[in-house]
Write a structure and sequence with these properties.
elongated, 15 helices, 9-stranded mixed sheet, 512 residues
C-alpha cells in the first residue's frame, strides 16, 4: 500500500485504526450491514470506492476518476486483474466498429440486437442490450484509447485466435437457428497478441490507465460489509487489512465489482446446482460471491442466480464437427457446430450433465488430447452402443437417420452446415465422454444483483438503493444462459462498468 494520506489515500498505520466494540461484534455475528452509528471513526475516506480489480472494477474506476472524483479501488487478492486477466480478453462488439469497418465487415446495430435478443435466453434484459448495441462502436474506440492493441486482421476459423488476429466469429452466429434469426457478422474483438494472452493484455492496459489517472489501488484489502445510514443510504464499507477490520467512508458511491461465485461451493449448490458438478470452476480465486451477498444484505434484489456458462470446447480441430453428439438415450439433441457455450449449456442444463461425441475414422481427434477422454472404441456403431449401454437400437437408428440425410447434404433436425455434414462411416468409431464431471468442462456464474442501466442496485420493489452500484459478474447483466458468444461477459463488464463509475461519481450519498 502506498504511504500516502488525505481524502483518498491512507497510510498503513491509519488503515489499521479501529471500530467500536459494538461494530466489531456486529461483524462477528455476521450481521447484514453495519449501521453508521456504530462506526466510531473512519480509517479512510474517498468519494468513490470500487470493490474489485477486474475489467468491470477498473473501467468503473477510470471513468469515476475522469469525472473528477477521488477513487479508491480495493482488491482482496495480492494481485490485480480479477477473472478478466484469465480470460481471452474478447469483447463482443458490433454495429460497425472501427475494426469491422477497416476489414470491410458489414454489420448493423439492428442485426447485433436481433442476435443478442433472439438467439439466447428468453426475456433477456432488452434495455441493457439496446444500449450496449447502440454504444458498441464508441465503446470499442474507448478500449483503443485505453491502449488495448488490435490488429486489422480477421480469421474465419472457429475458436479463439491463437495468432494475432483481432476479429472473429466468437459465438454461435453461423449455426442454426441463430443464422436464420440475424445476419451473421464477426463481432469477437480480441487484443492482437498471439496465444491466449488477450485477457492479460487487456488488463495491463486498463491497470496502466487507472494508475496514470491517480486511482488509489490497494491489494490485499477485502470488503465484507456495507455501512448504511438510518435512511438506507450506503455511506461506507468495512474491510479487512492484515486480519484487522477497518472502515472506509464513501461520500458518493460504492461500486461492487468483485466477480461471481463459482468458487463458493455452498452458494453454487444452493443457487446454481447445474454448475456444481462442472469439472473446472473457471474464475479468479476470489469469485466467492462476496459482492453479491453484500448487496443482498442491504436489500438488493438478485436475478438469474441459477444461470452461468458451461463450456464444452470440442473444437479445434473443426474436423470433429463432422461427428455427432448424443445424449444418454443415444439421440442427437443439438447441432455439433454450435458455439461451445451453447453446447455446454445444453449438456449441463438439459441433458443431466451427460453426453458423448461419436466420431469415425476421419472425424476423430488426430492428436493426443485429454480434454475429452475416449470411453468406447469399436468397428461398428452397434458395438459402441453396447459398450455405453444405450437403449437397444437407439444409437443405430440415430446414425442411420443422420447418414441417410447427410448423404444428400441435409440435416433436417438441426441443419448443420454443409462444411461439417457428411455420413458417419469408416471405422474405427470412437465415443468421447463430454460429461460435466469427467470432461474438461469450465463453468462460471452469471447471476447477480439487479441494476439499472447506470449500474445502480435495485431492491425487490424496483427502488434504487442510494449510493450503491454494481457491475460485471456482481450483476445480472447481458450474459445469460445459454452463453451465445465469447466476449459478452468482458464486454458487459467494461461497458456497464464505465456507466456505473460515471453514475457513482455524480451521486452524493453523504454531505460534502
Amino acid at each position: 500500500m502506498t504511504e500516502t494520506s488525505g481524502e483518498s489515500g491512507v497510510t498503513r498505520r491509519q488503515l489499521l485504526g479501529g471500530l467500536t466494540a459494538t461494530a466489531a461484534a456486529t461483524l462477528a455475528a455476521g450481521a447484514a450491514a453495519v449501521p453508521r452509528a456504530e462506526v466510531k471513526s473512519w480509517d479512510m475516506r474517498t468519494a468513490v470506492l470500487v470493490v474489485g480489480s477486474g475489467a468491470a472494477g477498473l473501467s468503473a474506476a477510470i471513468e469515476a476518476r475522469r469525472a473528477g472524483t477521488n477513487v479508491i479501488l480495493i482488491e482482496s487478492l495480492p494481485r490485480f486483474g480479477g477473472s478478466s486477466a484469465m480470460s481471452g480478453g474478447v469483447v463482443y462488439a458490433g454495429g460497425g466498429t472501427a475494426l469491422q469497418n477497416a476489414l470491410k465487415v458489414q454489420d448493423s446495430t439492428e442485426q447485433m440486437y436481433r442476435f443478442l435478443t433472439l438467439a439466447g435466453a428468453l426475456h433477456p434484459p432488452l434495455d441493457k442490450i439496446q444500449l450496449y448495441c447502440e454504444g458498441s462502436p464508441e465503446h470499442f474506440d474507448w478500449l483503443v484509447e485505453q491502449g488495448v492493441p488490435y490488429t486489422d486482421k480477421l480469421t474465419l476459423a472457429k475458436g479463439l485466435p491463437m495468432g494475432d488476429e483481432s476479429l472473429y466469429f466468437s459465438g454461435t452466429e453461423l449455426a442454426w437457428p441463430a443464422r436464420d434469426l440475424a445476419i451473421p457478422a464477426p463481432r469477437g474483438h480480441v487484443p492482437g497478441v498471439p496465444g491466449m494472452n488477450g485477457g492479460r493484455r487487456l488488463m495491463e492496459a486498463l491497470l496502466s490507465q487507472a494508475e496514470a489517472l491517480g486511482v488509489r489501488m490497494h491489494a490485499g484489502v477485502a470488503a465484507h460489509r456495507l455501512v448504511t445510514e438510518s435512511d438506507g443510504r450506503i455511506v461506507g464499507a468495512i474491510v479487512t487489512v492484515e486480519g484487522e477490520q477497518r472502515s472506509i467512508a464513501v461520500r458518493r458511491g460504492v461500486v461492487l465489482a468483485c466477480g461471481g461465485f463459482i468458487h463458493n461451493r455452498e452458494m453454487l449448490r444452493l443457487y446454481a446446482p447445474h454448475l456444481y458438478d462442472c469439472s473446472v470452476p473457471w474464475g479468479n480465486a476470489a469469485d466467492l460471491g462476496t459482492g453479491i451477498n453484500m448487496g443482498i444484505a442491504v436489500g438488493g434484489a438478485a436475478l438469474r442466480m441459477n444461470e452461468g456458462f458451461a463450456i464444452a470446447p470440442i473444437y479445434p480441430p473443426e474436423s470433429v464437427l463432422s461427428g455427432i453428439i448424443v445424449n444418454a438415450s443415444g439421440q442427437r439433441f443439438i447441432s455439433e457446430e454450435s458455439y461451445h457455450g451453447v453446447l455446454g449449456d445444453a449438456i449441463a442444463y438439459h441433458q443431466g450433465g451427460r453426453a458423448w461425441l461419436i466420431t469415425d475414422r476421419d472425424s476423430s481427434y488426430a492428436f493426443h488430447q485429454d480434454n475429452f477422454l475416449p470411453v468406447a472404441k469399436a468397428s461398428t456403431i452397434g458395438d459402441i452402443a453396447a459398450q455405453l449401454k444405450f437403449p437397444k437400437g437407439a444409437l443405430q437408428q440415430t446414425v442411420a437417420y443422420y447418414n441417410l440425410h447427410a448423404a444428400n447434404g441435409e440435416d433436417p433436425m438441426f441443419r448443420k452446415s454443409t462444411a461439417y455434414l457428411r455420413p458417419l462411416q469408416g471405422p474405427p468409431y470412437t465415443a468421447w465422454d463430454l460429461s460435466t464431471s469427467q470432461a474438461f468442462f469450465p463453468a462460471h456464474t452469471f447471476g447477480g444483483l439487479q441494476t439499472t442501466t447506470d449500474g445502480q442496485v435495485l431492491n425487490s420493489f424496483g427502488e434504487e438503493i442510494p449510493g450503491l452500484y454494481a457491475a460485471g459478474r456482481n450483476t445480472a447483466g447481458i450474459p445469460t444462459a445459454p452463453y451465445i458468444a465469447s466476449g459478452l461477459s468482458v464486454g458487459d463488464c467494461t461497458f456497464f462498468g464505465r456507466r456505473a463509475g460515471r453514475a457513482a461519481a455524480s451521486h452524493r450519498s453523504a454531505p460534502e
